[in-house]
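Cross-posted from the bioinformatics board.
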Amino acid sequence: MIGDIVNIIETKDLEFEYQTLDDDGKVIESNKVLKGINLTIPKGQFVAVLGHNGCGKSTLAKHFNGILVGSKGKVFVNGIDTADDDKIYDVRQNVGMVFQNPDNQLVATIVEEDVAFALENLGVPPKEIRRRVDEALNTVDMYKYREHSPHQLSGGQKQRIAIAGVIAMEPDCIVLDEPTAMLDPKGRKEVMATIKKLNREKGITIVFITHYMEEAAQAERVIVMDKGRVIMDDEPKKIFSRVEELKAVGLDVPQVTELCYELRKEGIDIPQDIITEQDCMEHILKLFGKDVL
Amino acid sequence: MNAVETKNLTYKYSVGTPFETTAVDDVNVTIEKGEFVGIIGHTGSGKSTLIQHLNGLLKQTSGDVIINGRNIWSKDVNIRDIRFEVGLVFQYSEHQLFEETVYKDIAFGPKNMDLSPEEVDKRVREAAASMGITDDMLERSPFDLSGGQKRRVALAGVIAMEPQILILDEPAAGLDPIGRDTVLEKISEYHKNSGTTILLVSHSMEDIVKYAGKVLVMNRGRLFCYESVDNVFSKSKEIQMIGLDVPQITRLSLMLKEHGVDLGDDIYTIERAKQRLIEQIKGKQEC
Amino acid sequence: MLKDITIGQYFPGNSIIHRMDSRFKIVLDIIYVIMLFVAQNFMGLAVAAIFIFMAYGVANIKFRLMLKSLKPIVPIVIFTAVLNLFFIKGEGNPLVDWWIFTIYWEGIETSLFMMIRIICLIVGMSLLTYTTSPIILTDAIESLLSPLKKLHFPVHELAMMMTIALRFIPTLIEETDKIMMAQKARGASLDTGGLMKKAKALVPILIPLFVSAFKRANELAMAMECRCYRGGEGRTRLRQLKASPIDFAVTALVLTVFGFVIVNNFIF
């Protein structure tokens, strides 16, 4: 570790296999989902994890707060081994989780009660719960809905409530497992904006699992998984310039990146690491001898 | 002949209460037989309500729905026949699976049509094949399949009824890129092979322009426009104004146009953007 | 559609009744119900009825809603009334004596009495759910039953289950609607045919519903674990149930009315 850069999550040779047992407890089938994962995630980073379904990304996420414990290897959260049962609630309080289906993670019939759920479990005094719930609801911009019932809200709003329920625990890190997969474009934007705000303003570490590359492109670092392994781990520009490799593992690249890739194939001189429209436009205009003011 | 025609179609919820809302407002649209139409609009734009009228799951407050030349609510029409003529696949359609095997589940619709066992068998196998469901999958439980496979089984269940009009509500929602491309490719192939009229609801303009011939845009219960894919992006600005996304490549072309590089108003694929750019760059070099 | 069900619906407000400690509300509601059964004459019932009507006024709940709560029980009211009307034999001569029907004055009186009693009962119980959010009601039940914890009765678990059930009822109703539509679109006929056929037609709806409910339960359990849920031990609550002077004042009022009803039984 250098200076005050601390790793919030660290995995060492992490492996996980699902076993199907018969009635006598003998293993009939075993399926290795994670095959030796070594990752360190420093505090405050915004990491996106990409990969098609079944690549192991959700299984990996569930190791980050001890919902699953590896069959081999270790996971440390703030230096605590997630296999240590005595400290499991420290781990879960430090690493909050948000899941894909917004309906299936809200417990209470009233928004503010739901946001309070984790704090109630942790035995926080009522006054402090009230303060943290209000703060969390304001952070996700849902305070005025505090007395609504979840089923009156849109998907994006429900997902923001789920996020509020997690940030009320004041975690160092939030792991979001495809939080936008079931949302419409508006809901996706709302959730994305909320996540970025948490990272920027509160310095919360974000591990964001998705298969939308436009969303991954907004992260600081992108990890690409395939068949239980990390196959790429770099900043988004570098990752998305590897167009062919990404396509080979069933992922898209942003349209502008693909355009530049195609143009390069035709011998046109344009950089390969373009991932935003603005960037792409500027470079195309350069080809026409124009500069953007 | 027209497959679908709506005349002044209007649907209101909770009529006569303070909560009265007009979900579909005076929609007039004519869809030709064999067309592949993409329907787009934000949540609450009325697109889901609209499609539920086309097979009579909802009855309009006023106006008419005409399917293959027949007014579906006229007395001599049996609404159940309309449901066989117009197949409707809902969002997250894998939630409708219930049988022990994939085969039986796909057969549920055709059996309800009182077809002969031979005909049911033939249709199940054809529908399964068209959705890329292999023979060994037919005997498995639908609940053991992957998300994308389940989705295709559910689609096959409706396709096996051989509807003349097939309506799909977000068939790719929630799937990963591979699952999404597979489902949409299969639907597109099926459209080409069978000539069925297809209405595909999606939030993704990128998906729609890739497969559909025409685009129907809904906004606040009203028909915003119904245009061919080539023409629709001449309204890019207006489409963005009503809160819908256009493909990233279209946004790029709009930005370039503002800075004096005009690739045309029909840029929605990377292929076309590339061609036009190369033409213009070469043209400039020759000057 | 299934969505229109309103039983147990809560209408937020800020009246005295809304703000009352929900434990008091439950206990007072029970006293009110006992009062209805203790009352032996119209005078007693009238007092109870006026009391509950006034409570609706204080809670600012619209008259229309009160009627709405009665809608589902109309058949029961009519059934009880008819039963009493024809089967109560009075002294004196029957007022009507035609074919197998005989009606005595006492019959009319009793059936009227029973009707008012049932209506007051439902209206009174609805007031509780109209003015108390389900979750607070659950909290109150948990708190009232907490002495049973000593007997190892799973009070917290029960309350938690109730909360989750309340949370998921609208979701599952919506889901049922969707599945029904999807199967109808596949030609399922849900409302024709004999009993056996109808029962069979439910299979394509119930199986997907159960599959989805189990999936939801599974995911919810995991989400709860992620939010450090570990049973009722050491749990605190956002909302503290706290008795205020209003609660004692209202209790005094209810007890006064109750006393009047009892005394009234002996006087008239």
